[in-house]
Amino acid sequence: MSMKQLLFRNLKQNIQHYYLYVFALMFASALYFAFVTLQYDPSLDAIKGGVKGAAAVRTGAVLLIVIVAVFLLYANSLFIQRRGHEIALLQLIGMTKRNIFLMLAAENVILYYGTLIIGILMGFAASKLLMMILFKIIDIPVKASLSFSGRALVQTLIVFSVIDVFMMGMNRLFLKKQTIVSLFRTTSTTEAKHVSVWNMVVGMAGIILIGSGYGISLKLFSSDWKSVQGLFMAMAFILGAVIIGTYLFFKGTISFLFHLWRKRKGGYLSIDDVLSMSSLMFRIKSNALLLTIITTVSAIAIGLISLSYISYYSAEQAAQNYVAADFAFTDKKDAARFTAALRSHDIRYRETMIDVIEAPTDISMILDIADQSRLQFQPSAALLSVISDTSTGRIDVKPGEAVLTGYQDILRQFLPFKETGTIRLEENGRMVPLHYLGMKKGYYVNYHFTHGMPTVVVDQTMFARLQKETDPQTKKVHIGIHLTDETNIERADQLFQRMEFSSIADSRLIMSRHQKQTFGLIMFVVTFLGLAFLVTSGCILYFKQMGAGEEERPNYTILRKLGFTEKDFFRGIRQKQLFYFGVPLLLGLSHSYFAVRSGWFFFGTELWTPMLTVMAIYTVCYSLFGMLAVRYDKQLLREAL
Predict the structure, then answer these.
(1) Residues in Cβ contact with 237 at an 8 Å cutoff, skipping those fewer than 6 apart
(2) Alpha helix (H) ranges present in 485-607?
């Protein structure tokens, strides 16, 4: 057989065995080329706000190539080790290491660059789709166009060529270090037959560390931490405890639990147990570091996507909390000019005017904080906005009573209030006690008045007395314009943007769009990075299971001769893959839940719907790789039998 025939035979065999690697490389190159194409697309200039479109996409492209490079280098290491027997046989028949390396390099050039070119073409076709998705997410009325970028092509070829050079260097170094004997042993494994006391200690330590990290995360932003330094130390402990605990969980906890399970069964294992659990416990232990990395990064990916989606999902609600009407003003002349413009364009509206005063308020008796001396303000003289109950149209407060409303979720975590108690308002130089009835959810004045703190609602009689004492120069007013027909909001907003105002003026629609543009762009980039990691990590687990399946092929033949059926084998295979893919997934979901749960209120107003949506989609996509592994094992089983 000539070198050319051997080359194409190996290439054909590799395509059949490593089709998922080809798919992952194709997907990664397509996604990277599409990202770089977006980076050079001038239509991204339409995105205005705190985050520039090209900068965000460029950052995403850099992170994407890091993920892809790690995956390709690791996958190449797995493949070259799996081909150890083949390389050793080629050396035995007289081929030199140099010729073997050249043959591997030629295979790689054909497979790698052929897949890369197909991926680039797919990325070019998908770039318009990605642009359309991005503009849809951030709600920008710009038409996406399909354009080919020469700079994106050159950058993609250079980046992936550099990765290929490193892969070839790894192969050259591998061939140089290995002998024929060592090549025959590259896929051999040795399994321990018992669990020592040290494994038990490691197993218990893993559970304790993860549990302690979870417990502290639930109290991370509570009032238990006395200083910022203590807060950062708690964060560091959570991160270290969870990562180390995850490693120990794979290294010792699973094997310890399996040992207890086998001991309980007295060593009598069914065919399902032999195929699914018996050897799996040792493979998980030997791959503890890899599984820890995949679990940790999965948790980070799910957490970041969840937080970005929480921000995007909460954009409209956040805008309603910040702007208490469709349009809000603090100057009567500005409001009059705007309403005149609305009338001239036949846009109906309803106007509300709320007088707002600021009064020193003693909230020390209703703050649910034991040590108030460390606070950055004086709770006994907090300057809060006060409005009358008649201006709300919903709240009825009796004399001697008070209600708080419009409290931001972020501050609620750091400054929790009791359900009832006593507050005191300053009136005529003295503090007047009022019975506090609780916290309401409504927002009646803009964020500019409250800065996130709650608004005090008192009865009209007391508000009138407070208003008489207030200096006329410091009196404030909130003027809200509510459209009676929300279908006119676009027309009204265009009028608002064309006008100039002398004081603070807000549009709820502008606020909502600004939030969606900022967090929508972040969500877009983070989601595709998470998808890239999902594909690469799923492929790595699949490749590891391919190797494990090849090693277990002789066991299938022996068990078949003992009388076990294909149905018995299939059931055990499904259980094995469910466990191997399911444990990192469940642990990653658990880590991400506690991470998101500890600080979601910094990003939005809604937790469960965005987080559960992200987790469900991630789980479904991740499960596909487990199904592919089951399919591969079934094919391997039929070949062995």
Answers:
(1) 213, 216
(2) 489-498, 508-551, 553-561, 566-599
Which has the minimum average pLDDT: 84-93, 96-105, 440-449, 561-570? 561-570
**Residue 582: Cβ-neighbour burial (10 angstroms; 0-12, 13-18, 19+):** middle
Hey, CA dihedral for 144, 150, 152, 153, is it positive or negative?
Answer: positive
Produce one character per residue of 332-348: b if its CB has 16 or more CB atoms within 10 Å, e if not.
eebbeebbeebeeeebe
Q: Quickly count: other Cβ atoms within 10 Å of residue 590's Cβ.
A: 16
Report which of 584, 522, 130 is spatially closest to residue 305, judged by C-alpha positions.
522
Count of alpha carbons within 13 Å of 31, Cβ hemisphere only? 26
What pLDDT score was predicted for residue 191? 47
> Which letter, b or e, does each residue of 476-498 get, where b requires 16 or more Cβ atoms within 10 Å of its Cβ?
eebbbbbbeeeebbeebbebbee
Spatial separation of the C-alpha atoms in residues 339 and 495, rounded to whole Å: 10
| Span 470-495, pLDDT tens digits | 887 768 999 999 999 999 999 999 99
Q: How confident is the model at residue 50 (pLDDT cuts 50, 70, 90)?
A: very low
Q: What CA–CA distance (Å, rounded) separates 329 from 339?
A: 11
Rounded Cα distance between 557 and 577, Å, is 20
411 closest CA partner among 238, 221, 205: 221
174-181: Cβ within 8 A, 24+ apart: 174/77, 174/80, 174/81, 175/87, 175/97, 175/100, 175/101, 176/97, 178/84, 178/87, 180/88, 180/91, 180/92
Alpha helices in 83-196 (DSSP H): 84-92, 97-108, 114-138, 150-177, 180-184
**9-17 LR contacts (CB < 8 Å, sep 24+):** 10/86, 10/103, 10/107, 11/107, 11/110, 11/111, 14/79, 14/107, 14/111, 15/111, 17/546
Segment holding 143, helix H or strand E? none
pLDDT at 131 over 70: yes
**CA distances (Å), origin 210, targets 47, 165, 231, 246, 584:** 42, 40, 18, 7, 14
The region of weakest confidence among 31-35, 459-463, 557-561 is 557-561
Asked whether the predicted pLDDT for residue 147 surpasses 60, the reply is: yes
Region for 139 from its dihedrals, namely left if φ exceeds 0, alpha if ψ lies in -120 to 50, beta otherwise? left
Helix-helix angle 3-17:97-108, to 10 degrees? 50
